[in-house]
Amino acid sequence: MSDRLLIKGGRIVNDDQSFHADIYMEDGLIKQIGDNLIVPGGVKTIEAQGKMVIPGGIDIHTHFQMPYRGTTTVDDFTQGSKAALAGGTTMIVDHVIPEPGSSLMEAYDQWRQWADEKACCDYSLHVDITHWNDSVKQEVDNLIKEKGVNSFQVYMAYKDYYQMSNSELYEVFTFLAERGGIAQVHAENGEIIAEEQARMLQMGITGPEGHVLSRPEELEAEAVFRAITIASQTNCPLYVTRVMSKSAADIISQARKRGNVVFGEPITASLGTDGTHYWSKNWAKAASFVTSPPLSPDPTTPDYLNTLLSSGDLSVTGSAHCTFSVAQKAIGKDDFTQIPEGVNGVEERMVLIWDKAVTTGKMDENMFVAVTSTNAAKILNLYPRKGRIAVGSDADLVIWDTDSIRTITAKTHNSAAEYNVFEGMELRGAPLVVICQGKIVLEDGNLHVTSGVGRFIPCSPFPDFAYKRVKARKQLAVLRAVPRGMYDGPVSEFSMSRGGTPSASARTSPTKQPVRNLHQSGFSLAGNPAPCGPPTPDDIPIRPAGRRIVVPPGGRSNITSLS
Amino acid sequence: GAEKKKKTKQGAETLMPAFFKSMGSDSPARPRQKFCGMFCPVEGSSDSKTLDFDALSACRGRSDRRVIDRQTDISQPRKVEIRESTGKEALQNLDDKRSDRLLIKGAKIVNDDQSFCADIYMEDGVIKQIGENLIVPGGVKTIDAHGRMLMPGGIDVHTRFQMPDRGMTSADDFYQGTKAALAGGTTMIIDHVVPEPGISLISAFEQWREWADSKSCCDYSLHVDITEWHKGIQEEMETLVKDHGVNSFLVYLAYKDVFQLTDAQVYEVFSVIRDLGAIAQVHAENGDIVAEEQRRILEQGITGPEGHVLSHPEEVEAEAVNRSVTVANQTNCPLYVTKVMSKSAADVIAQARKKGTVVYGEPITASLGTDGSHYWSKNWAKAAAYVTSPPLSPDPTTPDYLNSLLSCGDLQVTGSAHCPFNTAQRAVGKDDFSLIPEGVNGTEERMSIIWDKCVVTGKMDENQFVAVTSTNAAKIFNLYPRKGRIAVGSDADLVLWDPDVTKIISAKSHNSTVEYNIFEGTEVRGGPLVVISQGKIVLEEGNLHTTEGSGRYVARKPFSDYVYKRIKARSRLAELRGVPRGLYDGPVCEVSVTPKTMTPASSAKTSPAKQPNQPVRNLHQSGFSLSGAQIDDNVPRRNTQRIVAPPGGRANITSLG
């Protein structure tokens, strides 16, 4: 297959504008854009005939080949990335999930190995932080500096397993903010879920409906709220994975209005279907919808989330593609808490958003490109290499057919799973031609994919999209003590038996340092080198993302509150 | 009927003129009345501008000359005429020096729903008659109210008198504290029992009872704080509710490693509280984040009181409020947020109420009356006097905002969280703000501050004032109508309110023992003229006549109607059902032997609310038998609260919107 490719007569759609031009690609890169391009002979030419040419989709959240209790999700990197390409997605970002207690680096290497062998399209990796201590901290540092990972997910759910305490979240966020990472959260209140699960089982509810009943959407919203609070305290950019409910989405949009740097990621499933299927009489069907946070039983949710996605309150879309066969789901046939979690969606993502948001007039094609590709590239710091059609960008393109109509069904999908959560949906819009790394991988409905051609794309820290604002705030956030004379009045006797407040956490917290005594360092009147009065910037130790300004009496400007 | 109404109306109109009747009469050219606050801050600026009340009142009824003694200076307390029985009447009461019988004539009675003019007769500490031309026994002490407002005495729902803290005790004990409360028009307080973790709730409760019974000058009741959680605590809570008249328990989301409970524990406590019919109170701050921030701030060398507010940002308060609302919704438990200190926390409460949550918010005197800019005071002792948690917000628009929400009903009750420490005690934290004992004054100032900030400014009327200072508290804590209302049969806890007296709050004149008053220099309008507690006059002409130990413990029953009517209705709706399905008989994947505790987390600690571990029940074995008895009938069910959603949508009972 020729490495040289010319698309003639297409309408190029970026997130900012659409225009007519030809595109010439060579060696997997876009070399020229314009009219009447001068190209070498023997170039394969695609006549686009006014059809839209968009940057290939980036699915920012997949779980291919994910190990689960000795089994593995049915779609491995080949199957998964094939499904992705079939749907117009030319890059995926998978989650590395180290077992709690094990090395992040080893898990990362393992995932790299799997993906390098099998992926049919470019990929990047998020790394999930499933426990927290000094060595994890060191590994996170290395992953950022040397391994091209800039996003790390923490879990607020899965009590006694992945779940992190608020203090740990604070420390992780503080550290990520220093190193330029993006903090991703799986936002659900695991403590309450555990209680509710016990209650459901006690009442004899063991089927998949128990899954959604024990994970009410309020618990998702609560966790989102808490994550935002902690991120705001630590001045760390926050990314909420899997926005599944209206109330969680509302919390994100409110926080954005208040100025928080927070991004929300609805997934194909939450944009396309709802949680009423958990009550299906067919156990296997009901179980195939099990994912966390669950799909909302409120049938107006997808429409609502599509609206917020269109208005920009939610920023990116993933699929959280993590499919299990019926036999695997049946691990939990007598106890919904044992059902492996995950739904399909990598193949359907682009089409579904087109159908739900563009054909309905909620968003235009430029916004479509933004939420399916460009914003993800910006957050991952891959822009404009990915997520844009421009000279020098990767030749990952999709020629989009706006009129094609097809029905989604497990019979024809590219996933290995027996059920498709979008079964029977008739969707308008589809990729006509998919070009990945400058090669045509989908044409005339035929996929031509090659296992192992996918490259790992390293992501660098401090993505401008998130960190420009964070940096500006950090500069403002200098705290100063009030210079006062020493208090020399009487002091009551007191017992320290009950630590009044300054809690000494039992766990060793990596960011902990000896407490500095103000009177030893801050307000000496002698000419010793200790800084006097307000410290000059040089004296200030590098702070874990301070963000507040000392308030002069009479008011302060709260930088996170723009209103 | 119509005539009576007319008369009433006239009475109301008469009120002001009659009251001011003799004002400035000793010096007609220069009225003595000096208005305060936002209306006329400049001294003397009212000269020659004040209405001639004499002229206005000349033709009205009820304006008899005896009304008030001449008022020569506004710094003098206004007077009411209290007539002791004389002559023959006195002989009938020889055995009763301080008569228990009291008649208030011509008052405008203000309840939370209406105001009307009537006389009111009390005996043995209970209101016996309300109406006109009452037939009362001879020898009754009579107060001529002359149309002034008579309200139910205030209820301060949140005090911490005599509170132990690391071997110290908060500066005002029950005597000093209740005396201050009475001086401000508050005739009942509800104090918090704070058991040290490890100490039995009952013994702590009895300790507080002992302290209060021996010292309290007004009726009181007690909240009990849950500072740890295990099986024994649940049993003690049951005992407290059933035998000791406690119907409210406070949990802490802050004070990490001391009082703080985890979310799972809070869930369990709330479940227990709901089953007992009590109110779940919450101190809402995210203790984990506060601990991290405190460490960070101290590391930066900030050790003064400003570090306290910097390490307790208001977002952290709002977060915890949001979380407790979520848990309360899940458990269908009524929630009461103590110390609402910031706009964002108040907003979260207001939003939750709009969504149907049964939640109440309690701003305190301090958050309604002042702000946190004083934490930056150069005077360490002054700055330290403001230390309380959650802290006062540095945003100076906060008090006004909270007063507005209080006025519109989004916040319902007011307390003082009165827990002052003197400067020597505060100085324990002179080198480390996190050691400063926390608490501010406010029990004496509460009613006047709210009157001044809300009623004088027109945010609320006098009825709403009564609601937020007294009635709502009585309703929530199941004291209504014994407390919180002027009605026949209610306790004779009353305040004759003077809407026009002005006073400058100062530590020099307050009844608390501490050196600093956080409202120092605030000029407030409105104050109690006469305070009646248990049918006895305890404040008149500025003089307090309190009796140590006269306060009674008021027991409170669970399942307060005001709170639990809705909770009960929701419980009834919340029947959960599984989906009847055939048995899955397809292939099942093999699972590795080490099943990770993927989700159904078993909390390591024993949690009292959890049923002893039952084997997981199989739906098909137990749930859908058509016979009457179920095999699980012996399993006590916990109250459920959700409705199974039929495909196509469900009615979320906690979300009315």
TrEMBL record, chain A:
Keywords: Cell projection, Cytoplasm. Residues 494-523 have a biased composition (Polar residues). It is found in: Cell projection, Growth cone; Cytoplasm. GO terms for biological process: actin crosslink formation. The keyword Cytoplasm applies. Residues 52-441 form the Amidohydrolase-related domain. One of its GO terms (molecular function) is hydrolase activity, acting on carbon-nitrogen (but not peptide) bonds, in cyclic amides. This is Dihydropyrimidinase like 3. It comes from Lates calcarifer (Barramundi). The lineage of its organism: Eukaryota, Metazoa, Chordata, Craniata, Vertebrata. The gene is dpysl3.
UniProtKB/TrEMBL annotation, chain B:
Residues 1-27, 597-657 are annotated as: Disordered. InterPro entries: Amidohydro-rel, Hydantoinase/dihydroPyrase, Metal-dep_hydrolase_composite, Metal_Hydrolase, Metallo-dep_Hydrolases_sf. Residues 597-628 have a biased composition (Polar residues). One of its GO terms (cellular component) is cytosol. Keywords: Cytoplasm. It is found in: Cytoplasm. One of its GO terms (molecular function) is hydrolase activity, acting on carbon-nitrogen (but not peptide) bonds, in cyclic amides. Residues 149-538 form the Amidohydrolase-related domain. Gene3D superfamilies: Metal-dependent hydrolases (3.20.20.140), Urease, subunit C, domain 1 (2.30.40.10). Belongs to the metallo-dependent hydrolases superfamily. Hydantoinase/dihydropyrimidinase family. This is Dihydropyrimidinase like 2b. It comes from Lates calcarifer (Barramundi). The lineage of its organism: Eukaryota, Metazoa, Chordata, Craniata, Vertebrata.
